[in-house]
Amino acid sequence: MLHLLLVLVPLGLAASVSPVMLTEQTVLLAAPGGRRAGLLYSAGAATVLVLLVAAVLVMGRSLELPTAPHLDATLDLVVGGALVALALAVHLVPARERQRSRRGARQLGPAAALGLGVFSMGTDVTTLALVVPAAKEIAAAPVPMWGRLLAAALLVALACLPAWGPVVLVAAAPRAAGRFLHRVEDLLHRHGRLLAVLLVAGAGMFLVGRGLIRLAAL
Questions:
Q1: Where are the alpha helices (H) located in the chain, listed in sequence order?
Q2: For the whole model, what pTM was predicted?
């Protein structure tokens, strides 16, 4: 279980680097009825990840990854290579203006916030790309079912941090939360692209390296 957490936590935290989601959630919370809208936004984002992680776990167990080391190593190479390619694509493709997300979030009511959460997480390529290998680790880990369920819940919670984190901060410290969130938002908008590239590339190289080591040990 410890070995799983050592891989799962870094991948989950890396997946949580999402400037767009943090911006949308900050704007939602600042609008009338913001807390309710923020909760629904978080629920929408979490729903996407729950379905994705569940699908990977089901497919991973059907492939019997723990008893197929050659397949597991090959998947490491394939997924790792895909992450490195994605990091290169994110680095090369010009950044798009995010003001539309800010304006759209400000105009949404609580009901529409659920759909926005689903859409934002469903189109957050870097987050999804890091959640998939993390979920694969859970599927391949030699732990009981309850351990996999706890690990899956932890992964979803970490990857959804930009969605539920601001809600908790606003509820706990409403005065200080606004200033803190705007500072984090500004930091991510300035350096979030570079962070995403480095984190995705790092995760990809880790998986490629581990896959090569596993193949060499067969």
A1: 2-15, 19-30, 34-63, 69-92, 99-106, 110-122, 125-140, 145-159, 161-172, 174-217
A2: 0.77
